[in-house]
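Spend some time on the protein that follows and explain the fold to me:
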Amino acid sequence: MSMLAYRGSITTTGSSEAIRFDKGLFRQNPEFRQKASVEAHVIGRGMLLVHVVDDAEGQEEQEDPVVAAFLAFLEQNAISHPENIVPLSASKVALAVELCRKVVVSDDDVIPDDITF
């Protein structure tokens, strides 16, 4: 599935740096309306993930923006190409069970700081 790409440029506005995008991005994605609060995460060299911040207070658990972007991609792909959705076969489930048979985990396990996902 090809994703729409929007071209832009980095510029200065007042005393701040800004990223300008073609108006088509905003027409096709109205959630990025003017004055919307956004948050940006650097997810790799030269890669930036920008999302609209919900101003609703009381959000106890913040979602991971990378996971949220991936799930949104999966959702869009499933909507655009439902023919690609196939049931999980019993043989694949059996293979997964076999691969994980000797793996022992606990909710109390601590993941070291030098491990990244």
